[in-house]
Specification:
elongated; single chain; Jelly Rolls; 6 domains; mainly beta; 734 residues; seven-stranded antiparallel beta sheet; six-stranded antiparallel beta sheet
Length: 734
């Protein structure tokens, strides 16, 4: 099978057809297909013509891209021990002119075995093609060399790795990237055993004690103080459960070591184990090096290392996650979580991200997996995501507990989740940090888990955002509800917003295009003012986002607020035109009447009539109001002029429920006959009707003057808006 990413044709890579993909460059002849090799059934065979250098190269150059780095390697079998060889990459212009040559290091194996030579180089700015040349030095004419598994392609570095390619994968050599610090008699070589690609670094003990190999000081990589980093290496030891220590050395601007982060592992033999250390760069750190320090108990013990990485943890976690990496992904250990109701352990059995996850085995009762996060900001929305692999049709929960400065809970929210078994499930819940919150306790919970039940937990997230709703009183007797995190689901999801009052059925909130019930999501943030919320009682709002296919649903309920009400005043509001709203003083309450709708039929020969009835009519009555100023009078007429259905809202404790009314004849009467007095009494004929359809147009208290004053200039006022409606309603800018 061809090597993934190889620019060379298959027959140049493994010589399975013939030797036509290769030609003699100098000092070589008798190119042929040989038997055996490291890839497939055949290899390339060539003979040296003298004791000088023998070189063979590609018969046809391959295209390359200027500025990119390329790696080339080949497996070589020499004619005798200590015979050296190397690989070259030669760069050519589009016209075929040689620009330069990248030479890999010479390698002399102490025995006659298959080994790898490699080189890495950057294609020059004018390069169009490249040639791979294998160079060997013989001690006599007609000595036969063999080559196989020849590669030229882009280095497949691990995402986020700050270390150079050869330091990560050891495909070129060991000496140029790693330094043997102590003891001097430990053997540090390259090995054909590999976790990735073709070779690794091999350490062999010369006696009991600790060894240390450290990345070259000249190749120390830049770091930023205060940033969290992870270093790891895949390790396979020759003896099980010997200690392997992975280290990060922090270096200051003067080149001095100012701190070390380390973690000890005890990997088993016969497999590759990822041995990780996580640390925060201390103040003054500007560079870092990686150290690998196995502890031997006798001479001849070996450790192979491969895929060595040093990276900022932010590059390996989901964007925006602010948990420490070991809490999020449990790559070093599982100490970031406290567990009750289960035994916890680090595992590779089931993994969502990185190399490890947490395994939970129930011991009876609720399983509660908890961690604490610090530095929360009151009023900011946060999202907690817990990813789990669960057995059977079981329900699990996520929970956020907000704690004050004394560590006391000030609010707790939780949400239940369910879903398919055999796949990783992500339960994401959001909440707004209360005003007195300083920390948060986040938990993954399995209610009433039986003894022996197994769960897996991985890739926890804590981020700013999530689905939240916050309500505050607004002008015009309404409540401004700010909803964030609407895009937490998916692009085709729908959203709904309902009003919740104790003892009443939840009601939809009127939006710009009608009731906000399963409406399309056009942005992450929405600001809706609810002018139909009752006065003087606790009101909450629940936002829900759901997948139309029914496979997902999130919801969030706001904290309760109570809208102000006056002792003697009522509100008359136009539900569709909230600017046409007025608060007026009541003179007398209506005496409600509900007329019967029936026909009384007198039947001949019967003393009792036959009555045919329909449902009783809605309420009617007359409401008497008082205004004191011309402005109050004009405002009341402005509301009444449209003839629209109005919402009549009462103060709590009056024994009246909020009612939609159609207002018939209106009488405006002078309280006194003196013309200079503006006091009026009003009589409004009311008929109770159903809630009208339609959306909101405009706002009770937001005007274009409000928009103009919302920023230093129009660019500020327009920031984040896609339509003029966004600007006017205040959605722009979140």
């Amino acid at each position: 099978m061809a090597i993934a990413g190889n620019l060379l044709p298959p027959n140049a890579e493994s010589i399975e057809t013939d030797a036509s993909a290769w030609v003699a460059v100098s000092g070589a002849n008798t190119l042929a297909r040989g038997t055996g090799g490291t890839s497939g059934s055949f290899c390339l065979s060539f003979k040296a013509t003298s004791t000088a250098l023998a070189q063979v190269g590609l018969a046809a150059r391959v295209p390359v891209t200027p500025g990119l780095w390329y790696w080339s390697c080949a497996s070589i079998f020499p004619p005798h021990e200590w015979a050296w060889s190397r690989i070259l990459i030669r760069w050519y212009t589009a016209g075929g002119t040689l620009i330069s040559t990248t030479e890999g290091p010479r390698y002399q194996p102490p025995t006659r075995v298959w080994h790898q030579v490699g080189a890495i180089g950057q294609a020059p700015a004018t390069a169009a093609t490249a040639d791979v040349v294998i160079t060997a030095e013989s001690t006599a004419a007609n000595q036969t060399w063999f080559a196989d598994r020849v590669f030229l392609g882009l280095p497949a570095t691990t995402f986020g790795n700050l270390l150079p390619w050869n330091m990560e994968s050891l495909e070129i050599d060991v000496e140029s990237s790693w330094t043997n610090i102590f003891p001097d008699n430990w053997g540090v070589t390259k090995s054909p055993t590999a976790y990735s690609f073709f070779q690794s670094m091999l350490l062999t003990s010369q006696g009991a004690g600790r060894a240390l190999v450290i990345s070259e000081s000249s190749q120390a990589v830049p770091v930023t103080a205060g940033v969290e980093y992870v270093a790891y290496a895949y390790v396979t030891p020759g003896v099980s459960y010997l200690q392997q220590r992975t280290q990060i050395y922090w270096i200051n601007a003067a080149g001095a070591e100012i701190g070390t982060s380390s973690a000890d592992w005890y990997p088993p033999t016969g497999q590759w184990t990822r041995c990780t250390v996580i640390g925060v760069a201390p103040p003054g750190a500007v560079k870092a090096r990686v150290g690998l320090a196995p502890l031997a108990t006798a001479a001849g013990q070996q450790w192979a290392f491969d895929r060595i990485v040093l990276a900022p943890t932010g590059a390996l976690m989901t964007a925006g996650n602010i948990l420490p990496y070991n809490v999020s992904d449990m790559e070093q250990d599982v100490t970031g979580w406290s567990v009750t109701g289960a035994d916890k352990s680090q595992t590779t059995e089931q993994v969502l991200g990185g190399a490890y996850a947490m395994k939970l085995v129930g011991t009876g009762g609720d399983v509660v997996v908890t961690s604490t996060v610090y530095g929360v900001q009151p009023g900011v929305g946060y999202q907690f995501v817990a990813c789990t692999l669960k057995p059977g049709d079981r329900v699990y929960q996520t929970r956020i507990e907000w704690l004050n400065s004394a560590g006391e809970p000030v609010r707790t929210r939780w949400q239940s989740w369910a879903g398919s078994t055999g796949v990783w499930l992500a339960g994401a819940m959001g909440d707004l940090a209360p005003d007195d919150a300083e920390t948060a306790r986040i938990s993954f919970i399995v209610p009433n888990a039986p003894v022996g039940e197994v769960w897996y937990f991985d890739r926890a997230e804590w981020r700013i955002g999530g689905l939240t709703a916050r309500a505050v009183p607004a002008g015009g007797g309404g409540a401004a509800v700010t909803v964030r995190g609407l895009t937490s689901g998916g692009p085709t999801w729908k959203w709904s917003l309902t009003r919740i009052v104790a003892g009443d059925t939840p009601q939809p909130v009127r939006g710009w295009a009608g009731d906000i019930t399963k409406q399309s999501i056009t942005g992450d943030v929405a600001v809706i003012t609810d002018y139909e919320a009752p006065l003087g009682v606790d009101v909450q709002w629940r936002v829900t986002i759901e997948n139309p296919t029914g496979s997902g649903r999130y919801s969030y309920t706001s904290d309760a607020i109570s809208l102000d009400s006056e002792t003697l005043d009522v509100w008359l509001k136009d539900p569709g035109l909230p600017a046409r709203s007025v608060r007026a003083t009541v003179q007398t309450l209506p005496d409600w009447q509900r007329s019967a709708r029936q026909g009384v039929n007198q039947v001949r020969g019967r003393s009792r009539p036959i009555v045919i009835s329909d449902v009783r009519s809605s309420r009617t009555g007359s409401l008497a109001l008082v205004t004191h100023t011309e402005s109050e009078r004009d405002s009341l007429w402005w509301v009444l002029d449209t003839g629209h259905v109005l919402l009549l809202q009462w103060p709590p404790g009056w024994g009246e429920r909020d009612t939609y009314v159609s207002i018939g004849d209106v009488t405006e009467a002078h309280i006194t006959e003196l013309a200079e007095f503006s006091d009026r009494t009003w009589t409004l004929a009311l008929t109770e009707v159903d809630r009208p359809f339609g959306g909101i147009v405009g706002s009770a208290d937001r005007t274009w003057q409000t928009v103009a004053e919302s920023g230093a200039d129009w660019s500020d006022a327009l920031a984040g808006a896609t339509t003029w409606l966004d600007v006017y309603t205040g959605v722009a800018g979140g």
